[in-house]
Every structure is written in structure tokens, then in C-alpha cells.
Design brief:
By secondary structure, this protein is of the alpha+beta class. It has helices at 7-10, 26-29, 36-48, 93-112, and strands at residues 69-75, 78-88, 115-126. It is 30% helix and 22% strand.
Amino acid sequence: MTPPPGAADIHPRPESDARPTPPTDPATRGLTRIAPNVVERVAAYACRGTQGVASERAGAELSKVPPVRAQADVMGSHVHLAVRLPVDYPQPIVGVAAAARQEVSETVRRLCGLHVDSVDIEAIPVNRTRRVRVR
């Protein structure tokens, strides 16, 4: 059975001497930009798992725990972060801040591929054991 006229034009046969194009180097393909709000969310996520950081999920007093906030300044492949961190009382603030700083640096480097120049931390103490007397 012979194909109808023009059938070869619809489904052209691959040429035997056609070579696949070699893969290009990833660095020459283009530019990837990571928005500052993405870096901010990654930094806030990293802080939530740090020992001593007040969790929004622990206990029934959810409204008393301020959320973790982060602000990022991205300059090329470098980033400067400022993090506002609720710390459970009586945890040592310096120790919690150092652990959070380390966790944020590693997580942002691993997930975003950015070099973290500095992480400024503002600690907010959260005392859940304090009871307010009502008169």
C-alpha cells in the first residue's frame, strides 16, 4: 500500500545525519532572580524550627505570640537579613539568637543559593507563664 500524495510532507522522516544539540552550560542559559519576599519567607521558616523560638502553635494562647518576621536586602548573590524573633521566656536570648542566625544562614544558602552576609536579630521575649490578675 502506497501512502497518499503529500503524506510525506505531513510526517517527515528524521534525517539520519541530524545530531542532537549539545547541552549548554547552566551559567550561560540566563539569569535567575530570587525575589526578596521569597528569601524573607525562607528565613522565617528556618527560624520557626529553632529551639527556644516561641511557636505560634504551642498552647491555646496563640494571640500572645507575635509571628516571626524577616526583611531581606538582596544584592546579586548576597543577602542581608533582619529578623524579628519571639523568644520563649526564660530561654537565653543570646543562645537562641545565635542558633537562629546559624539556621537562617544555612537554610537560605541551601534553598536559595544566596550568600548570607549578615543576619540582624531583634528578640521579643514571650512569657506564657505570667498570669494577669483581674480585679
